[in-house]
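[job 4471] stage=fold_predict status=RUNNING
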Amino acid sequence: MGLAATLLLAGMLGLWHGMGSETMTRDASTGSGTFVFLDEWGRPSEPTKGAYIRKPKEQWRYLLGDSTYAITREAATEPPFCGRFIASKEEGFYLCADCGLPLFSSAAKYVSGTGWPSFFAPFASQNIRQAEDRSHGMVRQEILCARCGAHLGHVFPDGPPPTGLRYCINSGALVFLPQHLLQGRGKDGERLERAAFAGGCFWGVEQAFENEKGVAAAFSGYSGGSVPFPTYEEVCTGRTGHAEAVLVLFDPKKISYEELLQKFWSIHDPTTRNRQGPDIGSQYRSAIFVYDEEQRRVAERSRRTLDESGRFRNPIVTEIVPADGFFFAEEYHQRYNQKHGISGGCAHLR
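[job 4471] inference complete, writing structure tokens
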């Protein structure tokens, strides 16, 4: 059984036991719930307690842009046969366009002929909520992201076996994460390796690596802490122990780990402890998270060479520690600079 099919089966088992028993209004109170996340390897987590994500409307509008905001925050519906995922057949995961929670798998996607992406089961029953919708003179079951309350679409009892359900979802409420990336393969099947770095605000670090030839993808996230799948707000308290980090998936035939290290040293100040420019806190520390002994050896040699070069007046304080869990940041943090037409660090509203 393939990974996507395995995840689908797990989601369906949860669905059959819990379908229809949980509802949530769009103004649900803050707190925490239980969710199933994706780890950096594309594996589902155990049901894990996590904080809800709630923001003022004006902040959501800035973070999402007008089109996504209209769908996920104002329950607009995109025109039929126009969404970017209507005909997609690529294997992978469909995440909430607002917070990044995994909502559906390609293994449950089918062609319904209705004009919107359709699924017969969610990624995990814990990750969606239903609410009665009496708008437009109809009574329907609205589907929302369980973590951030984003409007996704509706569910109808006219789907295929084995559930008999049709989750009719707006493309604009979703982003897609290809399965091959998380499994270490490029779009043409080439082998990818991974590296992880922390050098202050992850917006600029992600952008810097993503622009490098040979880098297949870069993701903003959190590493080096004790709390699984934290939110940005939790990390900012300094109590989770995480650093803002960037996961880099790269083709070693096109760019080496040594070259990635050189890029890393060039885009931040490795001599300031728990600080980069105006950003102060342990989450802004300089760190290299190594995935094997070879990466450790190369990173330590690179750090030593740089320290001995005299390039910096003060000693380098960059940590070199084992990669012990990278947790994806919320979707609104991914490709942040690209989305907002900026470059560099964090001098903008989060």
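[job 4471] summary: The chain has a mean pLDDT of 90.
[job 4471] exit 0
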